[in-house]
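Database export, one record per block. Field names are fixed; values are copied verbatim from the stored entry.
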Amino acid sequence: MHLSDRAFRRLVDEALGRIPEAFRPYLDGVPVVIEDWAPDALLDEMGVPEDDTLYGLYSGHALTEGPPEPGDLPPRITIFRGPLLEDCVDEEDLREEIATTVIHEIAHHFGIDEARLEELGWG
């Protein structure tokens, strides 16, 4: 599937717009950036199998971990455009997968781990 960078960003912004107002103040200062692909070194470090992919990544200090320590990197959400475009069949499929990915990564900011996300159906 092909989509312009601008149209892709619009879908990410649309997904962010789904976040309830009560949660938005906790996301101030958490940039959501778009990159084409996750670097191979990152995939290796995370243990992502060769035949699997990564749509998004939360990095930084989760809110539940207390105040950040000196030297901690600021929180950041990265959405990987390439695998999403490669795996989605049409724009509606892409819209939903982006929304799921954005919500999944925001959940990590709130301290929700992979196991709990799986239990909640967001894995």
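Remark 1: The CA atoms of residues 43 and 49 lie 8 Å apart.
Remark 2: The beta strands are 32-35, 56-59, 76-80.
End of record.
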